[in-house]
């Protein structure tokens, strides 16, 4: 599960980096020097973002006895597998016990942190994409260059959606 989450974190960081690079190339070409000479720093930043996701998965989403008790029998009946031997199963955030809500705070905080990280990532991508698009609309570029830049921006936006679809499909296949 940690590897799956770290892969997601690195993919998100790479997509943000791609949006940032496109923004700099189109809107702030004088800042391009920060990309050309600092490749190792940008690669390290992506890996660090992935490591943060990895440690969230290990620390906050690791398997618990509550998860084993809650889903163990259903997994044994429906999948004919032992839940303790599956690498990735579920994140148990709450359970209703005797008509009262039992909240597992560790995974709940983990979900909140991951959601905040994802929201921050998407806000940055949306902001940079909007700024790039706005610059392309008012820029003094040739029609061919504007068309090419727009196509690349649309391809990047589609890539974000496609990446999320592939990750969701991969996650469900890991379970089976």
Explain this structure.
It is a single chain. Helices cover 76% and strands 5% of the residues. The chain has helices at 2-27, 33-36, 39-60, 65-79, 105-138, 143-175; strands at residues 94-97, 100-103. With 176 residues, the protein is mainly α. The chain starts with a helix and ends with a helix. The model is unreliable at 169-176 (pLDDT under 50). It has one domain (2-63, 110-175). Strands 1-2 form a two-stranded antiparallel sheet. The radius of gyration is 21 Å and the shape is elongated. α5 packs antiparallel against α6 (143-175). One of its GO terms (molecular function) is G protein-coupled olfactory receptor activity. This is G-protein coupled receptors family 2 profile 2 domain-containing protein.
Integer tally of domains: 1
* Individual helix count: 6
Strand order of the largest sheet: 1-2
Low-confidence stretches: 169-176
Keywords:
176 residues; two-stranded antiparallel sheet; 2 strands; disordered C terminus
Gist of the model:
The protein has 6 helices and 2 strands. It has one domain. It is 76% helix and 5% strand.
What is the secondary structure topology, with strand pairs?
Elements: H1 2-27, H2 33-36, H3 39-60, H4 65-79, E1 94-97, E2 100-103, H5 105-138, H6 143-175
Antiparallel strand pairs: 1-2
């Amino acid at each position: 599960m940690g590897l799956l989450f770290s892969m997601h974190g690195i993919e998100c960081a790479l997509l943000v980096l791609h949006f940032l690079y496109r923004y700099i190339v189109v809107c702030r070409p004088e800042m391009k020097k920060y990309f050309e000479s600092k490749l190792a720093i940008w690669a390290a930043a992506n890996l660090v973002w992935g490591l943060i996701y990895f440690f969230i998965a290990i620390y906050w989403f690791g398997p618990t006895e509550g998860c084993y008790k809650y889903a163990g029998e259903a997994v044994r009946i429906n999948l004919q597998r032992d839940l303790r031997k599956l690498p990735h199963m579920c994140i148990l955030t709450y359970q209703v016990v005797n008509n009262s809500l039992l909240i597992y705070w560790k995974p709940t905080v983990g979900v909140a942190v991951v959601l905040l990280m994802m929201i921050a990532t998407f806000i940055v991508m949306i902001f940079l994409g909007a700024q790039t698009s706005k610059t392309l609309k008012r820029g003094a570029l040739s029609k061919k260059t504007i068309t090419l830049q727009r196509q690349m921006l649309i391809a990047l936006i589609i890539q974000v959606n496609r990446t999320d679809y592939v990750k969701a499909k991969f996650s469900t296949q890991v379970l089976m």
